[in-house]
Amino acid sequence: MSTELQTRFEQVAAAAQSLTSRPDNDTLLQLYALYKQATSGDASGKRPGLFDVVGRAKFDAWAGHSGLGKETAMQQYIDLVEKLQK
Fold it and tell me: Looking at the domain 3-85, which fold is it?
């Protein structure tokens, strides 16, 4: 994995915490899923139960990126955050 990509990803992840406007829920799920895929790989663990609506949505968004390489996920995360910063 490229050290430059890793460094840029970490910088952008920190910057994402202070976006000027809050993204919509779908975009937040996308950010979460790409971040998890980039840092942890494919979704693991048990899918949250029916009554954990938020946890289930997050897990499903993450699982939707199964098979996506970590570097690709990092780049997509960077691209999305940079788009939101404009």
Answer: Acyl-CoA Binding Protein (1.20.80)
